[in-house]
Known about the structure:
It contains 4 helices and 3 strands, in the order αβααββα. The model has no long low-confidence stretch (mean pLDDT about 85). The chain is α+β, with helices and mostly antiparallel strands.
Amino acid sequence: xxxxxxxxxxxxxxxxxxxxxxxxxxxxxxxxxxxxxxxxxxxxxxxxxxxxxxxxxxxxxxxxxxxxxxxxxxxxxxxxxxxxxxxxxxxxxxxxxxxxxxxxxxx
Length: 107
């Protein structure tokens, strides 16, 4: 997160709101990195319109949400990032993986 904040400065705001019980649980390595990088890849990150990413727990789930500020042109992408992550979790958990975009999120 420090490297991303150094790169995007005020164009990126990440909020962690995960309680202590949820912090004791495990997730697949680099899951958060993939989700955060995916949000950055597909959305505008500008000081005038910062990308907001919120990471929080809700029941047994860890949720990662971001504002939608779609880029007009996206760097090389095969469009499989989230789908690959979802498929990986089907082998490791009986719980469904889902993702959403916050449209009116304000920190």
